[in-house]
Write a structure and sequence with these properties.
The chain has four helices and 14 strands. By secondary structure, it is of the alpha+beta class. The structure holds ligand 16H.
Length: 253
């Protein structure tokens, strides 16, 4: 294997491996920071509430670029009994994906950039009458601590990238995506001893943002109807999946 690690000898520690930056490190840093800024922006003018169900609210802004629908989507939800880390972990990890994804034909990892960053190649279910779509994107998971006392914020970003192992094969069309899942954990009525925190004390505040360009023409009405149906369905199905999976497991903070 080829790595960008360097071994150095130090008088105190002996031999040390210093992990260098990989080729996408700077781009990932920039996109993560953009999402952290954007997440605090509240929805206001121009955003339509397209779905509301319990604590879940899904908004979108209608935007077209050269006649192609690229509506930004933003979803807020609060889930009881899980942490932000758990939600992000299940979203990022490859092994659970086909258990909650209903819009994919396949998914595979084509490169591991570091322990928190992989590149996925996915085939999306065809939406009639459009051509089938695929996607190739880096997926990065990260924990951001805000202060000593607060629970950290967790996030996952999926961002389109080209890759030699994933050439675009016509008539298949490539989706261009910038998607983020950002989660905060709230601990209600915190017990004196943090060891005594139970699932019933937990609440996760989730924000999901998706900027997806279909990569080629698709009828606007069709895309908007699919989006209106599929995003709420995904949020519901995925979050209940995580609740089910973690119910009897130790809490992952
Ligand atoms: O975020 C979701 N899934 C991720 C894990 O599989 C992948 C996702 C992604 C999507 C596209 C490209 C790269 C990465 O982040 C959940 C996605 C839920 C999708 C709901 C359906 C959205 C429909 C939008 C219309 C797009 C045009 C399609 C035309 C045929």
């Amino acid at each position: 294997t080829v790595t960008n690690a360097t071994v150095v000898s130090t008088p105190q520690e002996g031999n040390l491996v210093i992990q260098g930056k990989h080729r996408l490190a700077n781009e990932i840093e920039r996109i993560v920071q953009e999402h952290l800024q954007y997440v605090r922006e509240s929805v206001s003018h121009g955003w339509d509430l397209i779905h509301q169900e319990g604590e879940m609210k899904v908004y979108r802004r209608e935007v077209e670029e050269n006649g192609i629908v690229i509506d930004p989507l933003k979803c807020f939800h609060t889930i009881k009994g899980v942490t932000g880390h758990e939600i992000c972990r299940y979203f990022w990890e490859y092994q659970y994906r086909m258990e909650w994804e209903t819009t994919l034909d396949s998914t595979k990892i084509i490169e591991v950039l570091d322990p928190d960053t992989v590149i996925f190649f996915q085939l999306h279910k065809r939406v009639w009458p459009a051509a089938q779509r695929d996607s190739c994107f880096w997926s990065h998971i990260r924990c951001i601590s805000n202060s000593e006392e607060d629970q950290p914020t967790w996030l996952v970003v999926n961002y389109t990238t080209p890759h030699p192992l994933a050439p675009i094969k016509s008539p298949q069309v490539r989706l261009v995506a910038n998607v983020a899942l950002i989660c905060e954990t709230i601990i209600n009525e915190p017990p004196l001893n943090p060891q005594d925190i139970k699932r019933e004390n937990l609440e996760c505040k989730l924000t999901y943002v998706a900027l997806i360009n279909p990569g080629g023409w698709v009828p606007s009405v069709g895309v908007r109807n699919v989006a209106k149906r599929e995003y709420p369905r995904f949020i519901k199905r995925f979050t209940s999946y995580v609740v089910d999976q973690t119910r009897d497991k130790p809490i992952l903070f």
